[in-house]
Amino acid sequence: MEHGHNVYLVIASLAIALMSGFTGLTLTQGASAMGVARRKLLVSMSAVALGGGIWSMHFVAMLGMTLPVTFHYNALVTMMSAFVAILLTGIALLLVHFGERTPKRITFAGLCVAVGILAMHYLGMSGIQGVKPLYSGLGIVVAVVVSLVLCTASFWISYGNRGSRNILFGTLVFGTTVVAVHYIAMAGTHFVKIEGVQSSGLWLSKEVLAFGVTLSSFVISGAFLLVGVTFAASLSKTHLEDSAKQSSAADTDTEAPVSDSQNVIRIPYESDGKTSFVDSNDVVSVQAEGRYTFLYHPTGRLFCPWSISVMETRLAKTSFVKGHRSFLINTDHVTLFERKKDNGVCFFDGTAHLDQAPVSRSYLKEVRKRLGV
């Protein structure tokens, strides 16, 4: 039997995938620096947003599928497909938010989500009653490859650097992946009518399923709006901080500030609900993490409530220099500098839980100037 799709519901399915991706990826921004209990809560909420979005996108698209016969869905299988998607996205988020975020963990997390999308799709399709889906080998292979490649790419974009721009690009890739996998798989699917077969167990008509999908889509849309307001506010705050930093730099001197190791700034860090302070000259490097930063200090990796732009402004007249958009480097602690074509690496003695920090091409000249090389 030939099947088609309602173009308006195709567009709606894409919107659901993008909103759920943005909500899930944004909710956990900065979560790695939070306490375990709060981190668990955010990861759980994000898993529901991402997994629920995958499920909702699939069934919005299925509601828009047209067949010349009546069909319905097995309720248990339909719910199981949602749980599988939430479970696998939850595992992926646990990998990148608990423990060190290594390349292997990011890659494996992306693969987990890819498997979740594929499992959700084909498990959800198996719940159709009244007709039987038949899959082409080519359709399955293409859907699997697209899911694995694009999901891994979306997690590398989103978690390689947890900046706002990366989250937005990661959202686009994630949403595109969910939609592409569904419609590629459907392009390789054909349906045949099953004559004289009685439906077993509890089943859902398209009208009942539409009610459930509308409810889940409403929740996702509401969460998207709430997260979006916070996200927009953080972008505005960052813009104001950058403007203040540029204004301050213009007022002080047109030349690059000369490092002065005698200028010591007291930097706050938070631990166990308390705020303490360390001297800037004891900090080896500062790394951005969303709207916050991490300090590499002999006592450990410390969470600081200042953003990287605030940190750069406060440390402008110290021995710190920006080596990368996510790193400030204390040149007093650099023991070795290595030039690599159009970028470089600063090495430290490792006593502050950090062996090296990258130097990108944009900041290479200033770093070399500070180091005198």
From TrEMBL:
Keyword Transmembrane helix carried by entry: yes
Entries under SMART domains matching the protein: LytTR (SM00850)
The HTH LytTR-type domain covers which part of the protein? 267-373
Quote a single Gene Ontology cellular component term: membrane
Q: What is this protein called?
A: Putative CoxC-like integral membrane sensor protein
Q: Which GO terms describe its molecular function?
A: DNA binding
Q: Which UniProt keywords apply?
A: Membrane, Transmembrane, Transmembrane helix
InterPro entries found in the cross-reference section:
LytTR_DNA-bd_dom, LytTR_MHYT, MHYT_dom
Q: Which domain of life is it from?
A: Bacteria
**Taking every annotated instance into account, which residue ranges of this chain make up the domain MHYT?**
5-192
| Membrane-spanning segments | 6-29, 41-65, 71-96, 108-128, 134-155, 167-188, 208-235
